[in-house]
Every structure is written in C-alpha cells, then in structure tokens.
Amino acid sequence: MITAPASLTHTAAVARLGHALSDPTRAGILLALRENASYPADLADSLGVSRQVMSNHLACLRGCGLVESVPDGRRSRYQLADEHLAPALNELMRVVLIVEPDCCSGDGCTC
C-alpha cells in the first residue's frame, strides 16, 4: 500500500494525540469515551481522580481537539470529537499489546 507523505497538519495532529496519550489519565479518558459519552464526575470516579484533576485533563483534551463538550440540561457530557478517533484508538490498543510491557514505563525510557 502506498501512503501519501505526511503534511505539517498531519504531523501536528499526531503530535497532539501523542501529547494526549502521554498522560495515563488523559489516555484513560480517551479510552473510556470510545464507546459512550460520559459526564466528568462519572469519568473522575471511574478513573479514580478528583473532579478538579478531571476538569484540567478534559480542558487539555478539548484544547487538542480530541473531545467535545455537549450540553445536557444543566450538565455537560463529553464525547470524542471525531468519529474516526474510536476506531483509531482500538487499532492502537492492538499495537500496544505487542510492545515490550516494561519499555518506557516511569520517568525514563529504558529502550
């Protein structure tokens, strides 16, 4: 299969996704939103973080263009910003399973 060369736009988008996935809480949020939209309080509870921490991470993901807030009465729920993101995350999870589990864990890369 022949692929087109990456443009600066593509490179920036992949870098944003990489930044989002570099934090375990943000990665958990994206993975949680693959199937269904969710409220920040529910995400905070399921990921074991405070609501303030969740708010900060959701703001980061919104800024990266990866999630969006949808008004729901007096509350807002969050969902992935693009329909292509869930299948991409599913494929990425398949790739991660073949990576050395102890590589790049913690503060330094051991690769």
Structural commentary:
- GO terms for molecular function: cadmium ion sensor activity; DNA binding; DNA-binding transcription factor activity; lead ion binding.
- This is ArsR family transcriptional regulator.
- It holds the Pfam family HTH_5.
- By secondary structure, this protein is mainly α.
- The chain has one domain (18-96): Orthogonal Bundle (Arc Repressor Mutant, subunit A), CATH 1.10.10.
- The protein is built from 5 helices and 2 strands.
- A two-stranded antiparallel ribbon has the order 1-2.
- The model has no long low-confidence stretch (mean pLDDT 88).
Summarize the structure in short.
InterPro entries: ArsR-like_HTH, HTH_ArsR_DNA-bd_dom, HTH_Metal-responsive_Reg, WH-like_DNA-bd_sf, WH_DNA-bd_sf. With 111 residues, the protein is mainly alpha-helical.
Rg, rounded, reads: 15 Å
Question: Which percent range describes the beta-strand content?
Answer: 5-15%
Q: What helical percentage do the residues reach?
A: 40-55%
The topology string of helices and strands comes to HHHHEEH
Gross morphology is: globular
The low-confidence runs, each spanning 5 or more residues with pLDDT under 50, are none
Strand order of the largest sheet: 1-2
Q: Give the CATH class.
A: Mainly Alpha
Overall average pLDDT? 88
Largest sheet: 2 strands, antiparallel
What's the number of extended β-strand segments? Answer: 2
CATH topology-level name: Arc Repressor Mutant, subunit A
